[in-house]
Every structure is written in structure tokens, then in C-alpha cells.
Predict the 3D structure of the following.
Amino acid sequence: MDAFYASVELLRYPELRGQPVVIGGRSLHQPATAADGSRLFARLRDYAGRGVVTTSTYEARALGVFSAMGMMKAAKLAPDAWLLPADFDAYRHYSRLFKQAVRSIAPQVEDRGIDEIYIDLSDHPEESRPLALHIKQAVREATGLSCSIGIAPNKLLAKICSDLDKPDGVTLLTMEDLQTRIWPLPVRKINGIGPKAGEKLGALDVRTIGELAQQTLEFLLQHFGRSYGEWLFNAARGLDERPVVTQSEPKSISRETTFERDLHAKSDRSRLSEIFTALCERVAGDLQRKGYVGKTIGIKLRYDDFRTLTRDLTLPVATDNPLDIRRAAGECLKRVPLDQRLRLLGVKVSALQRKSDASESVPSQAELLLD
DNA sequence: TCTGGGGTCCTAGGACCC
DNA sequence: TCTGGGGTCCTAGGACCC
């Protein structure tokens, strides 16, 4: 989906169309309604806090404002941009609508988060381009939103080429196009090469995917290890055998929060304790609502200097009970130095099972006695 | 005026078991 | 009286993605 969160907001506030708009920050900055019924929006320059940009419209991107940028930095670049808080309920609603629309045409869909999917079109009778246009039309009718589609021999190439003609684009790619269309692109365009690997490749004078394809397998294994080296070697050649996975189970459920100001374990003890308990309750609520229990309880904390650490603990029996989670998370917290200010606290439950299956996994007395 | 929140996957060492 | 070869689970950290 193109600039998904921002585009959903524009459905609601069409008067902002064509303007730089930034989604991010906490739920302050809710638009107010003036006496004449018009909306009063906040400007980015009004923002103060530790948030990051979640999404920006293409007009804001033209001013240098991109996802994951600190809001204060964004405000310097585009002080007059309009600022809206994220409304995840609305985005989830439109996410369901667009996925449903796609499934009505091509049911083999793999979820990749709220605004992205892979579709296996291998067995679809329609020709690629008309099919892409057909899907885009269905998405537009269901949501009023535009998307960009890449059709390629595998997920790796489809992902790259879905990005080549944004927004509202269709890109078709075959293996014959690899050298002309893919090799000139920077290595960071490959899904799986992030900031670290990108830096490391750059230091080795490898900047484009074509330059990556020129490296020997030995060279890549030597610098990136067996698994990642081999993956890089194949990725540069457009090779990817991963199937489109239409069904999956969650592995973990977590909640975390960055404080408005850094808190100290001693002087802010009661405030921290409140937040900690609330996080446990929210995770428990998420588990219960989704019908899962988990037996590994973990915490995450981040110090004021941004060092981050985790601790976890596996219980004998999976739970979705806030008190059990709170107790286990408390045990984890005891194993961590608390002499420095904290900026973030998080609670995670993993090793999940469906609650409906969970009772079966607790062995009966008879099973315990069996040799 | 640095740097969100929700995830997945991988690596690696150690405990423990057969 | 100097050291096996599998395997699984647990824990911690890190890269990466949306």
C-alpha cells in the first residue's frame, strides 16, 4: 500500500490532500473542530517529545521527512507540515479491507504486516499485467486507496520491483531483466540487507547489486559467514526459493513503552512499578483476546544511553494470567542492573501455544508414569 | 532536540539427556 | 587419569522488517 497510514488519514481529512502530512507521536495533536466546522490541525513545529515519524505523505518526503526519523529532526526540515497522531484501529480496518479484496481475486496471500502482502499468482489464469490492474482496481474499490504491485519469478524480486514505480505502480520483471533493472540498484534495495550489512558491503567497495553479483562465493562466505554469505550470493543473482506462506502462528506477543522522560529505578520506583504492571496486564489482555498462552516471559529495558538488554524466564506451564506474567517478569527484572536511568521498558511472552491446545500439553499422572 | 512499537529469524554457549 | 556424538531446550543479543 502506498504511504498507507498517511493515505488512510487523507480519506478522513481530504482537505490535507496535496500537502505535506506526517503521522507520528503520541495521541496528542488530535485535530480539533472549529466553530465553523473546519478542522484545526497541528503543525509539525508544535511537536515536542521523543517520537519518530511513522509515515509521511509523498509531499513530506519531498522535504526530506521519512519513516523512522525523529520527529524533532523532521520538524526542523518541515516545520509547516501537518501533524496527525497514529490511529492503528483505522489502519487495521483498512488493512483487513484491502487484504480481503485481494483474496477475492487471488487467495494465496502471505501477510507481511499491516500494509504489505505477497501473492502467489503461479496458478492464476489471467495474464500478469491485466491481473495486476484487476487487483489494484479491487483494492481501490474496497478502500479508496492506491497500491503498487511488482510481479516477478520470486518473492525477493517481487519485493524489489514493487518499489520501482511507487506510488500507484505496476512493475513486471523476468529473469532476463535482472542485469538491466536490478543490478544497477543499491544493495540496500534487497530485503534483508539493512544498515549494518549495507555499511559493511560499502566498506568492501560493494555498492550496487551488480557489484555484489561480481563477488565470489568464497569472498562473501569469508566476510559474512556461511549462512548470510550464501544468501547474499544467491540474492544478487535474483535467486530465491521461499514459498508464499499463507498460514502462520504468532511466535511472541509483546508490549513496550518509551517514557516521556528517563526514569530512575530508585527515585521513580512507584511510577516504574505502575508502568511495569500495566505492560504485563496489556500483554495478558492481548494473549487472552487472541486465544494464546505462553511459557517464556521476558523483559526488555533500555538505558538512557540507549544500551538495550533482555532477560527471560521459562515457566513450567504456559499462561495468559497477568499476575503470573507480572511475577515472572519481576524475577527477570531482579537479574538486571538498575543503577542507571531507563528510557524504555517492555514485556514479552513467547513460546506460545493456542489456549485451546494448551491443556493437552500438560501431562496427566498416567503419562508421567509411563516409561 | 537524536533514535517508536510490534514482530521474525539467526547465532552461540551452556545445561542436560541418551 | 584427559575426554564422543548426537539431540533439545534455555537464554541473550543482534540484524532486520513493517
In short: The first helix of chain A runs from residue 4 to 12. The longest strand of chain A covers residues 342-354. Chain A has four domains: 4-86, 89-173, 184-236, 252-370.
